[in-house]
Write a structure and sequence with these properties.
Strand 9 and strand 10 form a beta hairpin. About 25% of the residues lie in helices and about 25% in strands. It is built from 10 helices and 20 strands. The strands form 3 sheets. Strands 1, 13, 14, 15, 16, 17, 18, 19 and 20 form a 9-stranded mixed sheet that branches. Strands 2, 3, 4, 5, 6, 7, 8, 11 and 12 form a 9-stranded parallel sheet that branches. It has a two-stranded antiparallel ribbon with strand order 9-10. By secondary structure, it is α/β, with parallel strands linked by helices. The chain folds into 2 domains: about 140 residues, Lyase, Ornithine Decarboxylase, Chain A, domain 1 (Beta Barrel), CATH 2.40.37; about 180 residues, TIM Barrel (Alpha-Beta Barrel).
Length: about 400
């Protein structure tokens, strides 16, 4: 999906990733991430967001919940993280990364709320009155007022399987009196997901029905005396969508795929953010007219199509055969026979946190002084170097 864009816009990343594999410094099933380009992409987004007075919380699940990347993003001007779930919250907390929003896609379990709220987060996003009351109870115990966001959903909103939940816009009004009586919670914002999606037909990001639902909720809440200071409008946050966020009444975005230049629109257009990772594998064996490369990092929605094969300087490109999502990706099948041990380079949309992959962070590509600065697992934990066992 992104291989041609990496070849065009970040070819040095491919060359260095191949050399790391062929020198034995990384194993197959490793994502190699160009840290400098990630930071550059983030800085570009920060500059654009400032024009529209939009606050950005960075999302790191896609590239492995990595605390080193988080610190680079803080240095780029993004001030806090948004965490997809409570496990990511713990990773950020363990590395003293400030958190802006927790609970949006995955609610915080009751027995972890106190630890997270003691650590300190700007917003806890809640789906139900039960969770809201629990947040209020813990805030009272801690002697604080916790700002919360309400996730709002409507009948015709776009919602993904496995991500369903929130206050139904049709039922919201009857719950507002109880919300008003909470002594240690401040209803400060509203959110939904996804608020923008890519239209391949129009080659543009477009607002979903979710945005209209949020606009309706804001009017309703303010009619009841709540001050809605933040309208959090995530998905596809990038330079391309900052003006759309502003036009929709949004105050916050959550860049994720744009940090690595891997939104669907990045695959077909040269947007402001450049691609910043490749996936490295190795030919394990051949059978009939196919070769098989080590898997572990496949993502069913990644639209993996092509692989570049490098046999110690001799390069060619081939098609990756479609892989059924109901199976485990022990191997990925590619067309034609290639030498066992040859390097396979791929670039596709991923969610590293749900893979078995390793992550190699590199710096210095732009200055022609590339270095491998660390190896990590898919959850952001540091690994021993290959040569150190």
């Amino acid at each position: 999906m992104f291989l041609e864009k990496v070849k065009k816009r970040n070819p040095g990343l491919i060359d260095f990733a191949v050399s790391l594999h062929q020198k034995g410094e990384i194993l197959p099933d490793t994502y190699v991430i160009d840290l400098d380009t990630i930071k550059e992409n983030a800085s570009t987004m920060v500059a654009e967001a400032e024009k529209y007075d939009i606050e950005l919380y960075f999302m790191l699940k896609q590239i492995g919940r990595n605390p080193v990347i988080a610190r680079e993003l803080l240095n780029s001007g993004m001030k806090k993280a948004v965490v997809v779930d409570f496990k990511e919250a713990l990773t950020m907390m363990n590395h003293s990364i400030p958190i802006g929003n927790v609970g949006h896609l995955v609610q915080v379990p009751d027995h972890l709320l106190k630890k997270i709220m003691t650590y300190g987060v700007d917003y806890v996003t809640v789906y139900t009155l039960e969770k809201l009351n629990k947040v209020n109870q813990i805030a009272q115990e801690l002697g604080m007022v916790q700002k919360v966001m309400l996730r709002i959903i409507g009948e015709n909103d776009t919602l993904y399987p496995g991500q369903y939940g929130g206050f139904q816009i049709e039922d919201l009004e009857q719950k507002l009196d109880e919300m008003k009586n909470l002594s240690h919670c401040q209803i400060d914002g509203i959110t939904s997901f996804p608020c923008f999606l890519y239209s391949s037909e129009n080659n543009a990001f477009e607002a979903t029905q979710n945005v209209q639902t949020l606009q309706q909720a804001k009017v309703l809440l303010e009619r009841y005396g709540f001050k809605v200071n933040e309208v959090n409008i995530p998905s596809a946050t990038s330079v391309e969508t900052m003006s759309l966020i502003k036009e929709a009444g949004g105050t916050q975005g959550e860049p994720g795929h744009a940090l690595s230049g891997t939104s669907p629109m990045h695959a077909v257009s040269d947007l402001a953010e450049r691609p910043s990772y490749v996936y490295i594998s190795e030919v394990s064996h051949t059978s009939k007219d196919s070769s098989y490369v080590y898997g572990g990092g496949y993502y069913a929605r990644g639209k993996l199509e092509q692989a570049l094969i490098d046999n110690y300087g001799k390069r060619s490109q081939t098609k990756v055969k479609e892989f059924p999502s109901e199976n485990i990706d022990y191997y990925l099948e590619i067309e034609k026979n290639y030498p066992v041990g040859a390097t396979a380079v791929m670039a596709f949309r991923t969610q590293i946190f749900v893979t078995r992959s390793h992550v190699a962070l590199v710096k210095g590509l732009k200055s022609n002084n590339p270095k491998l600065i660390g190896l990590y697992d898919s959850q952001g934990r540091e690994l021993e170097g290959m040569n150190n066992g």
